Amino acid sequence: FGYSIAMNEKGTRLAVSAPAKNKSAGQVKVFDINSSISQSSFTQVGQSIYGDAIDYAGLNIDLSADGLRLAIAAPYNDKGGVNAGQIRLFHLQDEKSSQSTPHRREWVLVAEILGQNNNEAIGSNISLHLSTSKSGLLVMFSVGSDNFSESSTQRVYALATSTGTDSNSNATQIGWDIPSPYIPSDSSTTMSGEGNRIAIASNVANTIEPGSVQVFDYDV
Fold first, then answer.
1. pLDDT tens by residue, 141-155
2. In the chain, what are the domain boundaries?
3. Which residue stretches, if any, does this entry annotate as coiled coil (predicted)?
4. Which tens digit of pLDDT belongs to each residue from 152-189?
5. Where are the beta strands (DSSP E) in the chain?
6. What is the pTM of this model?
7. How far apart are CA 28 and CA 48, in angstroms?
8. 22: which residues sit within 8 A by CB, 6+ positions away?
9. Is residue 123 a contact partner of residue 73, using CB atoms and an 8 Å limit?
10. CA distance 71 to 77
């Protein structure tokens, strides 16, 4: 528990993963942080989210700035191919209480992204980022993180709906794969808050192949 963590912009909501939970199926929980001068407490938000057997769901996770959207990587999911990987996008559905029904909050699956080839293990590197742009929700993740890869790429997907609350939403790749000449463990990435600029760093500890940082803009 605590392998990967993510927090919303205000620091009031925290997502925590346990990818080895339930025989490596993986588990993710989200908590609201209730702070006071004397102490802090944590209240779980919505249900616990699980992966399938040996998926390692939650190896990497991210929360959107508003804390209403959650991305969970399961790098060893086999839906798209052997160890192709999977990234699921969830939206927090908040049903207000009434006289007849209690207040209920639930994480609803709105989109699923699958690896395109065997052993891509998408999302296994630390570079899993969510961002909300003017055109909707964006997610960036690493590709090619299995032990046999000598290089990696980054992919960016956009949710088809502007709000990302429709359970029938489709996530579509925008732009081409962005290659990095180095293995994923030596790469680091970041995405701007509006999702229109990303940076990819490739760190190499020698003078023959010096490291580099590339910055890309995209008109979203």
1. 888 654 444 556 888
2. 4-183
3. none
4. 688 888 886 544 455 556 788 888 888 766 555 556 78
5. 5-7, 13-18, 27-35, 40-44, 49-50, 60-63, 69-74, 86-95, 104-114, 129-133, 136-143, 152-159, 171-173, 178-180, 187-191, 197-202, 212-217
6. 0.84
7. 6
8. 50, 53
9. yes
10. 15
